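Checked the freezer inventory, then went back to the computational side. Two predictions to log before the end of the day. The first one is the construct we discussed on Monday; recording sequence and C-alpha cells without edits.
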Amino acid sequence: MKLAILIGAMQRLTALIIVAVSLIILPVSARSEQARIKNTLITNNKKELLVYFHVDGCFTPKIEEAVQSGIPTTFIYRVVLYNKSEDSLGPKIVSKEISHTIKYDTLRKDYTVSMSEKREPVVLQDFRAAKEVMARVDSFSLTTLDRLVKDTPYFLQVKAELDTIKLPPPLNYLFFFVSYWDFETAWETLEFTY
C-alpha cells in the first residue's frame, strides 16, 4: 500500500516538473521567434562596403530581467557576403561576427554597452536607449570595395542571436533554465548589385 502511494506521489511530482518546464520553455520560444532583422541598408564609402541593420523583438521580458539584475548579456550578429550564382548563394566572399554586450551596474545605475565594431563602450542611464544601441548596427565595414566587381550581383545575409548567458557555479545549476531565454532570428537575405 505504501509503495503504491509513493509511486503515485512520484508520478504527480514528475508531471508537475514537466508542466513547470513547459511553462518556462514554450512562452519564451514563442516570443523568441518574433525577433527579426529589420531596416537593412547596404551602402559604401570610397573604400568599404558598409552595412546597417536593426533587430526587432530581441529583448524578451526574461532577457530584460537578466540585464536589470546585472547579468552581462551578449548579442551576436553574423554577417555574410556571397557572390550570386544564378538564383542562389554562390561562393562566400566574407563572413564576420559582431558582438554587443550590455552590463548594468547596480551601484552606479547605468548601462555599459560594449560593441566589437567600436573602440569605446557607450555608457547610458536610460535602459530604452541602451536596448536601442544593443539592437542596432551602424556603418559596419564588411569588406573593402577592391574585393567586389562593379555591376555584379551579390547576396548579403544577416542573423542575430543571444549568446548563451553564462552564470558562475553554483548559479548555473540553480538557474539551468536561463538557456531557454535564448533567441535567434532567421537569416535575412538581401540581393544587391554593386
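The second is the one RB wanted added to the comparison set:
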Amino acid sequence: MSDNQASDILKSWHGVAFEQLCWQHVTQIKRALEIGGVKTSLSAWCLKGNDEHTGVQVDMLIFRNDNVVNLCEMKFTGMPYEINKEENIKLKERIEALKATLSPKQTVHLTMVTTYGIKQGKYSGIVQSQVVLDDLFG
C-alpha cells in the first residue's frame, strides 16, 4: 500500500469517526444551535442520482417544529475548514435538492459541524450556523 493510499484511508476513517461522534452528541449540537427546547427529529438523507441530477448525501438533518431544517455537514480537519468554489457548489446543490422535497413553509439552514470552525473566506457566507468539536463536549 502506498503512502497516498494509507493517507486516504486514514482521512476517510477520521471523517466516519467524526460523523459517529456527532451522532452520539446530538443533544450538544442542539444546545450549541440554541434549539435544545425545540421538538426535533433527526435523519441522514440521500437522493439517488439520475440523468437529470447528481446524487446527494447529507450527514444529518435536524427537522424542527419551528419549520427550520438544519442541514448538517460534518467535516473533520486539523484546522478551520475552508469552503472552496467546488464545495460551495456541492453545498448549494444539497440545499436545493432538499428544498425540493420540503414544504414551502420550511426553511433550510446550512449548519457546519467541524473540528475547528469555518475559515472566513469568499464562500463562508453560505453557512447559517456552525458547531465545533468543543461544543460536543461542553
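For RB: The first strand starts at residue 40 and ends at 47. The chain is about 35% helix and 25% strand. Let me know if you want it refolded.
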